[in-house]
Amino acid sequence: MKLHLQIALTILLTLTLNTLVSLLLTNQPQQIPEQIQVTSDLQLIDSNTTQLLLVNTGTALLLLGSSYFFTRRITRPIARLTRDLQAYDGSQPLTDVPEKGFFKEFRQLRKALRKVARTQKDALKESYHREQELAVTLDSIGDGVITTDAEGRILKMNPVAEQITAWSTNAAQGQPLNRVLPLIDTVTREPIDNPATRVISKGETIHLSNHTTLLTKDGIEHHIADSAAPIRNLDNEVIGMVLVFHDVSEEYRLRERAKAVHEQMQTLLNGLHTTTGILNCDGTLVFTNDTPLKASNIAMSDVIGLKFWDCLWWNYDPQVQELIKSDLGQALAGKTTSRDIQGYSPRGLFWTQLNICPVRDKNGRVIQLVAEGVPIHKRKLMEEELRASTQRLEVYRDQSPLAIIEWDKVESNGEITGWNKAAEKMFGYTFSEARGKSPQFLAPPELDLKLDQHISGLYTRSGSESLVSKNLTKDGRIIYCQWYNTPLFDEAANLVGCGSILRDITTEREAKAALTKSAAEQRDILSSMLEAVITVDESSTILTFNKAAEKLFGYSANEIIERKVEQLLPAPHSSAFSQYMTKYLQTGDSSIIGSGTEILAVRKNGDLFPTRLAVAELSVVKGGKRRFIATCQDLSQIKQREEQLRRSQKMDALGKLTSGIAHDFNNMLGVVSGYSELLQSALSQQPKLEKYAREITHAGQRGAKLTQRLLTFARNEANPTTELIDLNAILRDQQHMLGKTLTPRIALVMGLSDTLWPVSVDSSELEDAILNMCINAMHAMEGSEHCQLSIRTRNEEIGTIDGQALQLPPGDYVLASITDTGCGMSNEILEQVFDPFFSTKGTMGTGLGLSQVYGFVKQSGGAIKVYSELDQGTQFVFYFPRAQTIEHGQNDSTPTEQPQSKCHATLLVVDDEIALLALNEAILSQQGYRVITADSGPEALKILARESIDLLISDVLMPGMDGCQLLAIVHEEYPQVITQLASGFTGDHHSDEIIDRHPQDILHKPYSAKTLLQRVAELLTVERDCELS
Question: What residues contact residue 350 under an 8 Å CB cut-off, 6+ apart?
Fold first, then answer.
């Protein structure tokens, strides 16, 4: 009522003011007398005022009535409806409005509001059901789920999250996420930023790295994989975060173990001297050790992924590539191939034995190829075969996704009502194909445990919430799955179905089997390797000892494992090795780690031998000690071959020097001997002077003999004087002389075989060698109390292996050993005992004795070995090849008088030694020959062009055109001319050529006048039919 009066008074006051204003504005002043004007104004005002007041009063009353009507019929109902809506809780109906006139719209409005209220109630009920289903689903999944508010404080955790973090939901609510879920980097152990900060601040989904570790409340560490996403409201504002994670500790451990095995096997392969590669069936190279990479100075990326035949080693020649393709084709057909082939590297071409082996699966199908390259350049040079072992390493690793399946309860059996994409990918069925089916359709027929029985058992509380089962995919594959099952209940606690989370663990089972197989393969590989392989820990304790190591060192694995590796090294190498290892562990200084070095090792029986030791560090097993792997290569035979080669090279160099000296010396001896013979003939009537000339001749002969020995020592003698002899007979003939030489204080013991085979050697050289060895033995036994020199002979058959060590072909040999009881020799002296000019006698020795013996034995096609120890004496063993037959009469060298030719022939003598030319001219001229001389090949050709020559005598070695070249031209242009070569040294590059092209005997310098005249007479008699006198 108060509201009505306030409105009416307001309207009346407004109308009155409007009336007064209107009067003042409408009245206009006029020009009339003042008294009359005032009276008229008052009258006019009274009249207008009365009219306006009546109108305004009526209008005010009308407005007052309208205000009362609207307040009564409109304002109050709306206010009452507002109060009802504000107090409405959805449980009671709204108050009815009387249906009068147009007020039925209010009634319709109230009905619409009641309908909205019912809809709201239904929506709230549905929301409650969905919230319950979501809560059950979150509690049933195998991942941990945590939700937070906008400040990163925890609101809810599912049971898996409680189990992993060791926090209950009640204890964790309101706590910061980084307190309940503290994360660190697995590798660096550094804390990781709270994921809630980034998700809430930036509003983006994030995933943790692969190296994330969770520190639980009770101190246990878990490797986890997770993702975090923001929670937004309808205004797209971030109001919180949801974090989903699961424990991958087992997968992480398997992955780390697989990685450790792979690195260990890679290290083992890298330590090999052979090349090992793995190829796919299309020929693509997918793995190789670093041996060929280091040899070719290339990186792994340069060859991995290429076809094997397109790699650097083979693409230099299309024919080689075709050979590789052919071998790969045979290997794919199941055949193991082996081929000696040349490969290319920046250092040049190299020989390798390429073996390609097929690798089969359990069904016998070829799935990969293993290529092995064994370096065989030494075998090509020395005819040795090397073998190497191959290995195959495969690691399978895969991480399966999670599949979620919902089952509806239908008569105690489940029917599929939910099927996510992961389940579709895992089993191959779409949701429409799987809908309504029971769990058993995922099980193979032979499965004893029925899945539908297991699921129905959950409804009666008799089933298991977790199990591992074999499952059948749409394409017929059998996979193993880890099932996590949870019953689902509605808001009334009624069982409505089941939720299952499946994880494909097929790959994990295969990975475990692969690790077991890899460990077994590793043991087999170590046992089959040709090189000794030893693993030790950081304290030098031996952990493994392969078969090759047992054979090399003489210890069995059971004997040596758990002992110190220093037991295999003599002092001071053992202490040096310990110091190296200690220094490496403390400072990381890799003096021997990762590289190879040559040291001495000791066998069980105490024998020392040289070995190449290569040490590399293996990956550290978690919680274990540091480990090292060492390979040992026996260098005994290699050192022997290197020493033999070094000696041979020294002898070759000395031989060339000696041969050059012998050539010049022969020329000088020829002049001396020739003129001395002429003097003897001229002084035959003066005995005293003739004696002097004879002594000169004798000295020349001695010089010639010395020169001949030098040539023999140099191994460049054109026709060495050999004969079939009985070695025992030579020794018996020398026994008396040797006994006198050794003096009575040294006992000479002869042990000669009764059935000794014959040999073909130079008897004089053999006698000199035996005498030389006995004199050396006598010097070695000076000061010894019990002196004895033993000479023994025997027959022996040498096999392939022993022949390789001695550098002799297999066959029958006669052995002669000379053994003394002297002071012996050290290893340093043994290494130089056959070196030219090396002597232990100081100025008393020349250092050529044993060198000449060595040259004589080699020239005879044999070998010599020496064995010696300090204070234990020395033994030299000669190996001479067996001669098959003894031809009688071939050594009959009784001189006979040679007739002289009565031909008056013209002789051309060619030699670069002027003195020798003059001598030959004098000797031949005395016999009536016409002699022309030339000091070079070109000059001789000029003479041949203008003179008629019967016989040409030429030196072999001359500057410019040598004798062989001269004779080649003469035979072609002057075939009627008889030719004869003369030389004291022909040189290696001409010996075979002279023998092949000029079968007549070479006239060896220095020759006597008699020998020269005999040869000339013989040639002229045979070729010209001259009469002999």
Answer: 295, 342, 343, 344, 375, 377
